[in-house]
Amino acid sequence: MSPLQSLPAIPPRADRQLHEQHKLGKRLRHQVGRAIADFGMIEDGDKVMVCLSGGKDSYTLLDVLLQLQKKAPVDFSITAVNLDQKQPGFPEHVLPDYLRGLGVDFHIIEQDTYSVVTRVIPEGKTMCSLCSRLRRGALYTYAEQHGFTKIALGHHRDDLVATFFLNLFFHAKLSGMPPKLLSDDGKHVVIRPLAYVREADIEAYAQAKGFPIIPCNLCGSQDNLQRKQVKRMLQAWEQESPGRIETIARALGDIRPSQLSDPKLFDFLALGTRDGSALPDAHAWLGGETHDRAT
Ligand code: SF4
Fold first, then answer.
1. Beta strand pairing status for 180-182 and 46-51?
2. Which end of the chain is least crowded, N or C, by CB within 10 Å?
């Protein structure tokens, strides 16, 4: 046998592509399953409302959750919910056609938030922040009215990292977008099952699956400049040092309060005090007063 005959046959291109897609699907299911388990995102009997915008992220979320549901160790229901915000040119039939084809339970909320946003925001200014707030309000209200126990959103690993830097650079806070969250009014549990998934994988998955994507720029608005700036920074870092975003994402799950500087998270005052004696009043330090020592 010639040495070449002993080598494994190289699969034809289409087979290789199929093999890659299969691997990608498996990786996504694994990462989503791990996030669900790590954060206790879904319990037996949950009614999960999957917010579907028509973008690649939420299509991927719904698709992977439906696959996991079939083999899940718990029983839960899935309802896909979209908010038709009445932007001009929104192709109303796309999502219902797709969802009917899947045979999944779904609902389209119709609420003209577009008119509100265009009325309130001066021309030329970015509308996304108010638009997202109104969208969130409409979706949360629907979830409450219909007894959904979990609201699933399509934010992914790169969104979590970008939000962390937005808060760091522009709000001087070490805080991000958590994989599981109780809404401020305590009424909703929000879950982000794509928290471990790379955006690039979602892009590839959405393309392979041929999701009927509806662009989120029909209104002509732009992402805010700060978010754009952070995205550019992260992309440049990733190009320069591949794997850096993953390293940062891992760091978000490995926090050492004693190695930071927030006395609310770690009791620095009690650290290393001898014999438990009371510390002098902070005001004495601030005023530079001499500590009254016992002689
Ligand atoms: S691009 Fe338009 S529809 Fe999308 S979030 Fe911004 S304002 Fe809303």
1. unpaired
2. C
Q: CA–CA separation, 274 vs 272, rounded Å?
A: 6
232 close to 239: Cβ distance less than 8 angstroms:
no
Q: Please say whether the beta carbons of 193 and 35 come within 8 A.
A: yes
pLDDT at residue number 277 = 74
Residues lining ligand 1, judged by CB closer than 6 Å? 87, 127-128, 131-132, 216-217, 219, 221
State pTM to two decimals: 0.89
| SS3 state at 264 | coil
d(CA 195, CA 249): 9
Supply the residue whose CA is at minimum distance from atom 7 of ligand 1: 128
Summarize the chain as % helix, strand, coil (round to 5): 45, 10, 45
Q: How close is the Cα of 134 to the center of ligand 1, in Å?
A: 11
CATH class of domain segment(s) 20-257: alpha beta
pLDDT surpassing 50 at residue 294? no
* Closest C-alpha to ligand 1, atom 5: 128
Amino acid (one-letter) located at 131: C
Q: Are 193 and 152 in contact (CB under 8 A)?
A: yes
CA distance 112 to 135: 10
Nearest C-alpha to atom 6 of ligand 1 is from which residue?
128
Provide mean pLDDT across the span 58-86: 97
